């Protein structure tokens, strides 16, 4: 695969997942009656989402900041824990598959970003 193709796939997948993380973080601080009902249904308190929102913003910054490969690894891991935890919370709370299926798409996009992050490192001769 060419360097150009690797970079394009990396930036598209990374842009999509980081945009979704920022959207999720921002919406955690907005008043939303439907969001409050969803939180109650899965048993979370609003302060949990506020904590996760701050972590998501920090993760986005870590992934976009040049250098700091170990910090990027932690950010990717944190995003994966967040998405898997959210997916399981919906599943365990009895939500229908259609209500949490999109989470699987986000997990796949995050995995694509991570895989192509490492392909870019290999092209540069760096190993994280």
TrEMBL record:
Topological relation to the membrane, as annotated: Multi-pass membrane protein
What are the record keywords, sorted?
Membrane, Transmembrane, Transmembrane helix
Q: Where in the cell is it found?
A: Membrane
Q: Does the keyword NADP apply?
A: no
Annotated transmembrane regions: 7-27, 47-67, 74-94, 100-117
Name the major location.
Answer: membrane
- UniProt entry tagged with the keyword Transmembrane: yes
Q: Name one GO cellular component term.
A: membrane
Instruction: Supply the name of the protein.
Output: DoxX family protein
Recorded source organism is Mucilaginibacter mali
